[in-house]
Amino acid sequence: MSQFIIVEFWRVLKPSGSLYLFCGSKLAAEIEVLMKSRFNVLNHIVWAKPSGVWKRAHKPALRSFFPATERIIFAEHYGAEGFAKGANGYATKCSQLKREVFKPLIDYFKNAREALNISAKEINQATNSQMCSHWFSSSQWKLPTQVQYEQLQTLFNTKGGELLKAHDDLVIDRLTLQKKYEVLKLEYADLRQQYEDLRRPFSVTSEVPYTDVWTYPPVAYYPGKHPCEKPADLLDHVILTSSQEGQVVLDAFMGSGSTGKECIKLNRQFIGIEMEAPTFNKTLIDLDK
User: Fold this and answer.
1) Which pTM was predicted?
2) Which of 49, 105, 220, 278 has a C-alpha 20 to 30 A away from that of 90?
3) Dihedral sign for Cα atoms in the order 144, 150, 155, 157
């Protein structure tokens, strides 16, 4: 695996795309380092292969443990989520709306602090936290917990001021404003859908593997079997998890075309690349059947 191939993957992968790269256990660490130069590595998946092959191996002669696994590096573009958020303005509009709706609570805290000129350092020290910027500004505003609010009241009292409202009343105010925000946010439903369409697809259920250890038996031997052929159920899992119907799946090392066969079955478009002409020609015939 060369840096050139990694660069080409980076060039052709869409901002919302996912990359799954299969590799042997001995090369996995080096390949992951190469991948990180261009991609955000999300998981280093271990594909455990239940098989009787290792039982027949002469293990003492190996001088190491038998490699009964393969690795799958799962990655995305750096900044993929930020691209989706910024591409259609949904996140910006929601942020603006939230500041407007929560303005009464934001101003309550902000004005009380400014009146006494209390520093962020004093607030963080009094509450043993780093939450001043969240409580006393409109950026990612949050309501302090009851214990934190009582600590703030004590600090404000020592400065000759006070926070008059009870914490329970602030909780009620926050819940009321949150409901208002959720209702108003519905006006951006179309933008929300556009945002979801721009995000990297990722869909798993309890019926499929959702940890970073997958157990799939390797493809059993048959005459003409490609040495790197992947099992259909594993490919189904990858395709269904990280793509939607009608989207394009690229297999840059197509081999016998197993990925293409599953894409046809799952209503995905498919592009395959294969260096060996005999294998490529045979795969085209198989995919046309």
Assistant:
1) 0.66
2) 105
3) positive
